[in-house]
């Protein structure tokens, strides 16, 4: 009986690996997505909602929420406060900026449950009824926006910039507003709006 040839066959090994890679590549995308969705559903079923109470724009909201949901998604998807925008979802653009206990935060990076018992202010909570907040009025006066998508986050950061004492000159304003990106390039107008509110001396 002849012994099986144990000599490596690079060509045969290459063909085997190529066939395996091709099979994986040809797996229907729908099948992969279905498997992912089933996994997500099983994970969701294993995680219980937790109680959470947050005061948002002066109104207290008590609810049970998924502990994985971000503050941004809670605001937009659950409470329908869509003024706060989702841009990069990585905390790099500032479009989702809100105030938590007076401090500006990127709501896309903050789990909603971490804000239990805290006070959150969104762009919807700045105006006093039909009267615009001074910063909102200044942005309109100085054309501090073009497409407007980043504007809510810009305004929230601009208010915080003054409250934090970082609006004494143009360079300081640009430094402490650098976390808010405007792809339209309205930075000079944004700076002008902040400077006007700062000089106005109003309590914001």
UniProtKB/TrEMBL annotation:
The keyword Metal-binding applies. Transmembrane segments: none annotated. InterPro entries: 2Fe-2S-bd (IPR002888), 2Fe-2S-bd_dom_sf (IPR036884), 2Fe-2S_ferredoxin-like_sf (IPR036010), 2Fe-2S_ferredoxin-type (IPR001041), 2Fe2S_fd_BS (IPR006058), Aldehyde_Oxdr_Iron-Sulfur (IPR052914), Beta-grasp_dom_sf (IPR012675), TAT_signal (IPR006311). Keywords: 2Fe-2S, Iron, Iron-sulfur, Metal-binding, Oxidoreductase. GO terms for molecular function: 2 iron, 2 sulfur cluster binding; metal ion binding; oxidoreductase activity, acting on the aldehyde or oxo group of donors. This is 2Fe-2S ferredoxin-type domain-containing protein. The keyword Oxidoreductase applies. PANTHER family: OXIDOREDUCTASE WITH IRON-SULFUR SUBUNIT (PTHR45331:SF2), OXIDOREDUCTASE, IRON-SULPHUR BINDING SUBUNIT-RELATED-RELATED (PTHR45331). It comes from Pedobacter quisquiliarum.
